[in-house]
Amino acid sequence: MEKMSTQYSTYVRILQRELVCAMGCTEPIAIAYCAAVARAELGALPDRLDIEASGNIIKNVKSVIVPNTDGRRGIEVAAAIGVLGGDASARLEVISHVDQAAKDMLPEYLKKTPVAIHMAQSPFLLDLTVTAFHGDSYAKVRIVNEHTNIVHVEHNGQVTLEKDLLPSVQDTQADLPDYTLLTVQDIYEFAATCDLADVREVIASQIEKNTRIAEEGLHSTYGANIGKVLLKSGADSVRVRAKAYAAAGSDARMNGCELPVVICAGSGNQGLTTSLPVIVYAEELHADEETLYRALVISNLVTLHIKENIGRLSAYCGAVCAGAGAGAGISYLYGGDCDVISHTIVNTLAVTSGIVCDGAKSSCAAKIAMAVEAGILGFEMYRNGQQFYGGEGLVLTGVENSIRNFGRLGREGMRETDCEIIRMMVEQ
């Protein structure tokens, strides 16, 4: 791929835009960020909060621990720590540097501050509005489609920021790279030939930060300790270690670990799933740094390509997409060309397409392990002359056709499933 081409620069921009740091599950962090922006706009500590959130945000905040809150969970907690100690300029790391004074204030603030929570009636699956009040003053901030995409800011009736919203538009950011330029063939060509200087910073950060939180998950106690359980069953197997590291990162992240993760497709769990298995396999194979970096370029872009067909939030578990991305990256480490990578992706999606997302929580780590297993199996199948063929279930001839089909399943076919999952979780 020519370095001066529009497609080349778009791929670089996509990686730079997507592979960013976040501390904590991105849905409660979005609430903390929105609340921190509202407090800054209000200019005072709110004495009342009103939160309107789409069902998928409610689903993903319900059961996950918010970092820097002494093990607390929930929308009220995320908003409260955002207004008490959040740094709005840090975006997805908004509560990374909460001071002790803010932590000490949190219990009393939660007791005395009314927090109203409403389900947003919105065409957008990711839609969040925080209104912060202090006496007769208020500030309102709205985020749509992406976790830090502020589309409306209002202070005492004066609108200070407004972006046009159309339900048919997937993103409201004018500078959004053209994700439709992503194809498996071009991803392979870009990864194999790109100037690593253009991607080194984001990939190096992903390797360093995601490995660190995985090791923390393996050495400490978090949630159901899926990573530890897996490692006990076969630490000598690279296949087991690949699953264990990815799961351990999620163990820590879902259960309040205060280490950052480099995310992918708006999700820390997807960032962990798409990167850590590739890193583990590269170490096993004694791959050089260049090969590892190029394999991670493939795994991240494949994950983003698949996920773009589905959307940021869905009833379709995003780890499935990342597991396919990891399988593609592992294929590259073994010398696989575009044909091998394409069949690995299709095989993987055919195996795990039924995993549903019922919110962020400890069991995400187990789902990640299953998604990584499917990615590895997808590669091993094709390496041994086996594959799923077009016409079998949702598999179509051609990797792009199959990706579109599975995307349609996640985006359209599982829409009512998503609503029912949300209803069931709200009733609990």
Automatic annotation (TrEMBL):
Domain Serine dehydratase-like alpha subunit: 183-422
Organism phylogeny: Bacteria, Bacillati, Bacillota, Clostridia, Eubacteriales
Protein name: UPF0597 protein KQI82_03660
Entry similarity comment: Belongs to the UPF0597 family.
One Pfam match: SDH_alpha
Keyword Zinc applies: no
Coiled coil: none
Protein species of origin: Dysosmobacter acutus
Molecular function GO labels: L-serine ammonia-lyase activity
Keywords tagged on the record: Lyase
Alphabetized InterPro entries for the sequence: Ser_deHydtase-like_asu, UPF0597
